[in-house]
Amino acid sequence: MLGSILLSSSAQAANLQFWRFDRTQNRLELATDEGIQPRAQIVSNPTRLVIDLPGVKLGGPKQTLPVDGIVNNMRVAQFDPQTTRIVMELAPGYTIDPRQVKFQYASARQWTVDMPRPQFSPQRASAAPPTQAIAVPSAPGVAVVPTLPPTSNGRPTPTSSIPPGSIVVVTEPRPQAPTRPSTGSTNPLPRPTTPLPNPSTSNPKPSPTLPQVPNGKFVVVVDPGHGGPDPGAIGIGGLRETDAVLAISKQVATLLERQGVQAILTRQDERDLDLQPRVDIADRVNATVFVSIHANSFDANRSDVNGLETYYYDSGYNLAKTIHQSIMETTDMRDRGVKQANFYVMKYSSMPAVLVEVGFVTGREDAQRLSDANGRSQLASAIAQGILRYLQRN
User: Is the dihedral of CA 24, 25, 30, 31 positive or negative?
Assistant: First the structure.
């Protein structure tokens, strides 16, 4: 189930760019064009998860989407002039534990909400307090204000009295960090026993100075390859492609945000995501460019095969060339060239799109870099620099 809203920019408020609810994983994802700080609570009779987005304008009519027999519907509406509200309403008799509702952010503009499976318990539902606060982590650069009590009639506390971008500090303990979702596989992949090489002690090349671009003008979708039950390639010492590229992609998104670019990640954790939904995300947010990040592999007995490859399709050549050059300038990787290919996420994207193979997980040189935090950071900085250079020129 998917909800999508594309809005014009506003100097006074953030806009909700897109949202979607994944019924199979009970996960809500949302993205705005400015940093926000959500607030959340559980409201009883019937049980509703209420998420307020202070300082966010919907810019359209209320939307109500049916879900299934347990979750009656998802609603998105303008609660007051300064607050967009998202409500997940459960069927009568169902309830959820507020301590298991877990908020995460890739940046202050991009949030996910993982929810537990609702449980049918009429007694618990009827005995629940009118409102229960949910802990929400503080996004960077957002102010904190004291906890607000619920209103006397038990309705969700309105947020119009809170300055936009403020968090309500709740008194309940913060939930534990979410664990990696099950991949659904009963036979885990074997991990190679070859040890990883020790990180290099030589002096790495300095991180590039990232260029600034006009604030808010560009939207970049960063796509970490694979995920969930698909770990991608597995290399030396059990190095998994999905782990390396997710770490690099998150850093790329953070660096772009710091330079005034809105960065959207297609996934923020180990989850299953088909190819078309990755393309759909880029289309919904009207992305300027699409950058997919992967890692290569070769015969396990050929650890001598290493190097960088960058692929493009049609309009992505200049983007691929610029990113590739930036990585080659910043690292000592072997240059395997810029190549044309018809990979799905590039071929079916409506904007310039590239796929960067950041090295071989089976290569002794590349595996060392991809398994090392400093090596991943160096790659992320180089990719971000290449993207920013391209945006400056186009």
Answer: negative
* Interatomic CA distance for residues 63 and 34, integer angstroms: 22
Model pTM score: 0.56
Between 373-393 and 241-258, two packed helices, what is the crossing angle to 10 degrees? 50
Contacts for 238 with CB less than 8 Å, ≥ 6 apart:
191, 192
**DSSP labels for 17-47?**
EEEEEETTTTEEEEEESS----EEEEETTTT
- How many other C-beta atoms lie within 10 A of the C-beta of residue 327? 23
Neighbours of 101 (CB within 10 A): 24
Backbone angles phi, psi at 98, to 5 degrees: -60, -25
Same domain, 131 and 9: yes
List Cα–Cα distances, 114 to 24, 28, 358, in angstroms.
Answer: 11, 7, 30
Place of tokens 């913060």: 174
Length of the chain: 394
3-class DSSP state of 329: helix
Q: List pLDDT tens digits, range 300-347.
A: 888 999 999 999 998 999 999 999 999 999 999 999 999 999 899 999
Distance of CA 14 to the CA centre of its chain: 18
pLDDT in tens, 60-72: 888 888 887 788 8
How many Å apart are CA 332 and CA 188, to the nearest integer?
34
Residues 162 and 273 grouped into a single domain:
no
The closest alpha carbon to 360, from 371, 349, 352, 351, belongs to 371
Whether 111 and 228 map to the same domain: the answer is no
Q: Quote the number of domains for the chain.
A: 2
- List the beta bridge partners of residue 353: 290
As a whole number of angstroms, the distance between CA 307 and CA 9 comes to: 41
Give catalytic residue positions: 357
Q: What is the pLDDT of residues 162-185, one digit of tens each?
A: 333 332 222 222 233 333 333 333
Q: Residue type at 140?
A: P
Q: How far is CA 90 from the centre of its chain?
A: 26
CATH number at 331 reads 3.40.630.40
